Amino acid sequence: MSVDPRLRSILGGSAGNLVEWYDWYVYSAFTLYFAPVIFPKASATAQLLNAAAIFAVGFLMRPVGAWAMGIYADRHGRKSALTLSVTLMCAGAFLIAVTPTYAAIGWGAPALLVVARLLQGLSVGGEYGASAVYLSEMAGRERRGFYSSFQYVTLVGGQIAALCVLLLLQAVLSEAQLETWGWRIPFAVGGLLAIAVFRIRRGLIETESFTNAAAAGPPRSSALALFREHPREAATVMLLTAGGTLAFYAYTTYMQKFLVNTSGFDRETATWIMTAALIVYAAVQPLAGALSDRVGRKPLMVAFGVAGVLATVPIFLALERVANPWAALALVLAALLIVTGYTSINAVVKAELFPAHIRTLGVALPYALANTIFGGTAEYAALWLKKAGLERGFYWYVTAMIGVSLLVYLRMRDTRVHSRIVED
Q1: 58 C-beta neighbours (distance < 10 Å), count
Q2: pLDDT tens digits, residue range 77-133?
Q3: Is the peptide bond before 299 cis (omega within 30 degrees of 0)?
Q4: Which among 67, 421, 419 is positioned nearest to 221, based on CA atoms?
Q5: DSSP string, 359-412
Q6: How far apart are CA 18 and CA 1, in angstroms?
Q7: pLDDT over threshold 80, residue 312
Q8: Is 297 in contact with 349 (CB distance < 8 Å)?
């Protein structure tokens, strides 16, 4: 039985996205193990702070990747940009896998880690916009929210895969083995998977939106054209992203460290809690995406904003005192279900704001700027405030930024009704 080419391309693009984000998130999942051997001896929090700083450095390249590959995707095709991004991710993963320890080469070890994360930041900067636009354009008008939600299914799937690899290695290797050499395994696996994705993406078909825009000729995509001709849309993407991306990174990548450093769970229990929560979270994304196809995008984003403002501080305060893993799981799930109102539809909302000839850059660059400022620094800000004895300030910071985004959600038009993706 033959598979519809559109559906095959959506599945192929989603599978590639999963591997890309596995390679990105495996760094965060294994930070607790490689930080002691890559950085100088210090307190556990100080070593995690160094690793979080390099995690944030990777985000500095994301706007550069978004700019370069956003323009590349608008001028040469979404398929070509997706293939290029996975090549860069592959190089970064293999470099981390072979990076020597601090004991072997001193400060050369964290320096190599920085280079690898810069490559991966460049890759992810281009990946987000290209995959968001590819899935949104490839999906039909009536199911655009549903199919585009698979971007976050696979994004979270990459994080789940990283945690599952961590659980497997925790089961078969000792703590000493993981800290000595076992942490290198997931990065080598990521590099090999990226090679397989390269072959998959070479076989994707191009979207009708890009084909039509290319046939129409000028105008062409550029950063100047974006901010001169679409300033309101670009500002909307930045502001609607700010609260959503900060909440997402607070509840996912940082939460694993929070459960260990603040709640007091051991590393294995914290990994199990996050894995279970993220599996449920990923499964909910298509349901919320499908709901947006029926009721619109705006109600979901407003629901996230209101619930995030009201519940963020109480959830973190409860997690400070929680002792039961099941109670911790319920609290983390509550936070993730709230942020679903943003994550499930943010790709399609942004894509629907821009015309095809500048759509990838319009989605990618403002998002990457906001993501770098708020998402990439989330862990560092949380750990810095904790080290300074002001940990609860982070809870209020997340709440405030969700409130800023809520104001944007309340004022913007519903993109399901006013979409600029004209193809069916």
Answers
A1: 25
A2: 988 888 888 888 888 899 989 988 888 888 888 888 888 888 888 888 888 888 888
A3: no
A4: 67
A5: HHHHHHHHHHHHIIIIITTHHHHHHHHHHTT-THHHHHHHHHHHHHHHHHHHHS
A6: 26
A7: yes
A8: yes
- Closest by CA to 142, choosing from 11, 297, 290, is 290
Contacts of residue 100, Cβ cutoff 8 Å, sequence gap at least 6: 108, 109, 112
pLDDT in tens, 257-302: 899 989 989 888 998 899 899 999 999 999 999 999 999 999 999 9
Distance CA(252)–CA(77), nearest Å, equals 32
Phi, then psi, of 344 in degrees rounded to 5: -65, -25
C-alpha–C-alpha distance, residues 152 and 26, integer Å: 16
* Element (DSSP H or E) covering residue 237: helix 231-251
Crossing angle (nearest 10°) for helices 5-29 and 253-261: 30
What's the whole-model pTM score? 0.84
Nearest to 119 by CA among 71, 190, 199: 190
Structure tokens at 89: 């991710």
Read off the tokens for 311.
């519940």
**Residue 328 DSSP class:** H
The answer, yes or no, to whether residue 1 has pLDDT greater than 50, is no
Contact between 65 and 389 under an 8 Å Cβ cutoff? The reply is no
Sign of CA dihedral 128, 131, 134, 139: negative
Tokens of 321: 């005192």
Radius of gyration of the chain, Cα coordinates, nearest whole angstrom: 20
Token duo for residue 76: 């040469």
List of residues 6+ apart from 291 with CB closer than 8 A: 145, 300
Which amino acid is it at 276?
A: A
